[in-house]
Amino acid sequence: MNRYVILLRGVMPTGKNKVPMARLREVVAAAGYQQVRTWIQSGNLLVDSPRGPLETAQDIQGLIARHIGPTLELVALRPQEVAEALAGNPFGEAFDQARVFYSFFTQPPGEGARDSIRAASFPGCQAIPGSLAVYMYVPMDYTRAPLNAGALEKLTGTPMTMRNTNTLRRLLALSQAPEAG
User: Fold this and answer.
1) Partners of 129 in the beta sheet?
2) Among 73, 5, 71, which Cα is nearest to 39's?
3) CATH T-level topology, domain 2-77
4) pTM higher than 0.90 for the full model?
């Protein structure tokens, strides 16, 4: 059995991308997934699955579309991948870790996507592509910043989903718990 941290893209508490977490847990558990948990209302799901990450992601994407409504991009990460993403954070203690964000590609990026990110300029912000995530340092209000997941999507032509350091740390801790609680 494989454990996954699943990050849904664009989930909102209201509107067209609304995904009630209780309903999501119900639908995913009814489909046979085990240890189904969610954390906060922004599309963080943990499951145990006998399938690989891509097959699990595609199946859950279909379950959401069929039983809840929105068609959302998502990524399934193994707990060790979340740990690797956190460990790979290039922004050390000199940076406010509350202002570090991790953007994960929901599909394989196109040729040159990482080079495009390295070459781009985001005044006052920094973006550094890593093997699992694009690390972003955004010292100002994220909603007004020139660097955000939307800017990276436009630059690379690839959908991404973003989480902050604290969310990833919490999801990693939850994924390492032996049982749903």
Assistant:
1) 134
2) 5
3) Alpha-Beta Plaits (3.30.70)
4) yes
Distance (Å, rounded) from C-alpha 158 to C-alpha 152? Answer: 8
Q: Where are the alpha helices (DSSP H) in the chain?
A: 21-30, 53-67, 79-87, 113-119, 149-156, 165-176
| CATH architecture assigned to 82-169 | 2-Layer Sandwich (3.30)
Tens digit of each residue's pLDDT, the chain (181 residues): 999 999 999 998 788 899 999 999 999 999 999 999 999 988 999 999 999 999 999 999 999 999 999 999 999 999 999 999 999 999 999 999 999 999 999 888 888 998 999 899 899 999 999 989 999 999 999 888 999 888 999 999 999 999 999 999 999 999 998 764 4
Contacts of 57 (CB under 8 A, 6+ apart): 6, 74, 75, 76
DSSP conformational letter for 109: P
